[in-house]
Amino acid sequence: MQPSRYRYVIFSLLFLVALINYIDRGALSFAANAISQEYHFSKVQLGAVLGYFGFGYLFGSLCGGFLADRLGTRKVWLMAGVLWSLLEIATAWAGDLGVALFGGSAIMGFAALRILFGVSEGPAYALMNKAIAHWAPDRERGFALSIGLLSTQVGSLLTAPIAVGLLLLTHDWRMMFILLGCFSLLAMLLFARRFSDLPEQQPAANAAERALIRNGQRQEAHDEAPLPWWRFFTSRTLVCNALGYFSFLYITFTLVTWLPKYLQDNFHYDLHSLWYVAMIPWSGACLTVLLGGRIADRLLARFSDLRVARNGFAAVTLLGTACCFMAIPYAGSAAAIIALMTLGNALNAMVNNVYWSVVIDVTPKASVGAFSGMTLAIANLASIISPMLCGWLAEYYGYNAMFTVTAVIALGSMLAMTLLQPEKRLQPQRASGVAQSAL
To answer: Looking only at Cα atoms, what is the longest distance across the chain?
Structure first.
């Protein structure tokens, strides 16, 4: 019997839902000019509005992984997806809500809704990693992660034409949020019909495919209990990996939240040109996030050494990322700046699958959801720091300072990734609760 290929349906569903997740969160940046004009926000205040999302996202990413290990991936995906869709719709009235309920403060209305929105979107990538840990054979893991993580880059790429298109079509930033939220609800309905937590729960996956997945994964005892949360911090690899991932998200959130405003302020692009110019810095990343997974898998197959496939690959690529962003303040034209952004972001995206692969490398399957969530929670400090720090730097020191700080953070990530020990796996504990020490 030939194995079915339903696992690729699962990977595609993960890509679709994570893609919508990213478009929904990034749409606010393209309405930023209209919102700041209507409510008279300064750059610092606008940075705060963009950064409030991160407070909720940090909490949601942490809780989502733990909930997935206890309730199942599908249930948490559906709860989170429906909630973020409704909050996306409610964003249309965020400023009015603040004026009505928070003493005339529109910014407090945006703060409340964006924090709740961040909570609902936070679990997404921890849930994706948990699903891939169950559905992908080890030899396909890098590729499967790359498909899911491609959503970050494609979502950022498509946010510009979709958000700007809706703004130009409706002439109303509020209607943009309403339409995006309604589309998200429809996508969650499709997800509910087709997704299963495990291959054994999915009739469309035949016995041969289930055997292929099961035999292609590192075997673990069936009576494993999840590791206690504090074991995460006993692993130098997991901690350094989370710090490395912080840099990836810092660069991503810098571009997602401030790129449209930067292009409008410095090069005077209007909405009619912004929709395609803002896509360019994400074009290379859509290719390299897939290429990165392939390269990591090839390096592991060629050298049979996790340090080469994880540490070495990440360090070299992040060095190139830092050099690109360091050069932006010295570029003499819009074309050169956009080219450097595109190359730097493409190199940054190439390492994305490494961070998630490392969690699976060193973590027992029973704790992958929780430890993925903890990794995301630590790294997602960037979703708070980046928008706010960039707004402050742009207001008082100019946009060039924003890119210099981004380069320094990429160098810090490079150093953190050289300290990984991905071959040292945390030992699982049995259901009796007796923990074993790390290798």
So the answer is: 67
Question: Partners of 176 in the beta sheet?
Answer: none
Residue 220: phi, psi to the nearest 5? Answer: -130, 155
Q: Report H helices in 268-312.
A: 271-277, 280-303, 306-307
First to last CA, the chain: 40
What DSSP designation does 437 have? Answer: P
Assigned token pair, 29: 């940046």
Report yes or no: 355 and 248 within 8 Å, Cβ to Cβ.
yes
Backbone angles phi, psi at 430, to 5 degrees: -80, 170
CB 83 within 8 A of CB 148: no
Model confidence pTM above 0.85: no
Tokens of 163: 């958000």
| Token couple for 82 | 């429906």
Give the SS3 label for residue 103. coil
Integer angstrom CA distances of residue 425 from 69, 141, 308, 371, 420: 19, 17, 16, 13, 11
pLDDT at residue number 435: 41
Place of tokens 């429809």: 186
CB 94 within 8 A of CB 174: no
> What is the Cα–Cα distance from 295 to 313, expressed in whole angstroms?
9
Which candidate, 88, 100, 99, places its Cα nearest to that of 40?
Answer: 99
Quick one: which of 322, 135, 316 has its CA closest to 247?
Answer: 322
Reference 118, options 404, 382, 389, 422; nearest CA is: 382
**Helix, strand, coil proportions of the chain in percent (round to 5)?**
80, 0, 20
Q: How far apart are CA 45 and CA 392, in angstroms?
A: 9
CA separation for the pair 155, 83 (Å, rounded) = 19
Which tokens hold the place of 327?
A: 């050069």
Q: Which residues of the chain have pLDDT under 70?
A: 219-224, 429-439
| pLDDT tens, position by position, 8-41 | 999 999 999 999 998 999 999 999 889 999 999 9
* Under 8 Å between Cβ of 439 and 427: yes
User: What number of H helices and E strands is found in the chain?
Assistant: 20, 2
Q: For 217-249, give the DSSP string.
A: S----TTEEPPPGGGGGG-HHHHHHHHHHHHHH
- Token representation of residue 234: 């006993």
